[in-house]
Amino acid sequence: MQAVFWRTVGLLCLAPSCLLAQKPQPCKTPPLYTGAMTVGTQNEQLWAVGRYAYDAINQRIHLGETGKFNNTNFTYDALMLFQESILYEIHRHNQTCVKKALQADFHPMEVPKGAAFVSQVVLGSSSSPGQGLLVNNWWGDMPDKTGNYLVSFTEFGCFPISAFFKSKNMGWVSVSYFNNVVGVDPEVFVPPPYCKDAKLQENEEGREVTFFSLFNRD
Asked: Where are the extended beta strands (E) located within 71-170?
């Protein structure tokens, strides 16, 4: 009888409720998806809202955002083509384009290597199915060792929920992600025709451009 009991317990531990008791493992987002985000800084210098398209297969990111920086409104449209090491800053209002060297490797949207698991929480309510979202929180050091970060990803699907990281001049930067949808229109990664004749420029002071740096206007 006791043997039957323990076999039953073993079978129950194959259920999702038992599996979730295990420590979450680092994950990667789907390779192709689109989403929206908001960005804000501790010193209130920067606030922005935008949309992005992400392609890990061909290493491409397209980001469009509008917001306010130092009390000045701005619109920013950036196409990052990592395999070509090119960044296009697209100005649709006057159909001009700035072409820059993209001096960084492509980093997949994922729980960063070396991140430490902090906690698993439910956003919303766990009282009934469909009322909450299971999220894992991770903590670590920024690649340049200038500060720390805290990132949150969904347990199921590994979609980003939020990111907090330390900026030298702005303090903590907060990024919130929402409206993520699997799949992407490949046309969003094609530069507009007026970008064809843009001449390659070097980045100011050799500054590297990464996905995070597009929000960090130090």
From this structure: 72-81, 86-91, 96-101, 116-124, 132-141, 148-154, 160-167
Three-state DSSP at 6 gives helix
Place of tokens 């999702």: 16
Could you tell me which residues come within 8 angstroms of residue 194 by beta carbon, excluding any fewer than 6 positions away? 95, 96, 97
More confident: 136 or 12: 136
Tens digit of each residue's pLDDT (9 = 90 or more) over 24-82: 999 999 999 999 999 998 888 889 999 999 999 999 999 999 999 888 999 999 999 99
Strands 116-124 and 160-167: unpaired
| Contact between 41 and 171 (Cβ < 8 Å) | yes
Give dist(CA 197, CA 178) in Å, integer. 35
Task: Tell me if 139 sits within 8 A of 153, measured CB to CB.
Answer: no
What distance in Å separates the CA atoms of residue 109 and residue 2, rounded to the nearest whole number? Answer: 47
- Residue (of 49, 28, 36, 17) closest to 138 by Cα position: 28
Judged by average pLDDT, the poorest of 15-24, 73-82, 144-153 is 15-24
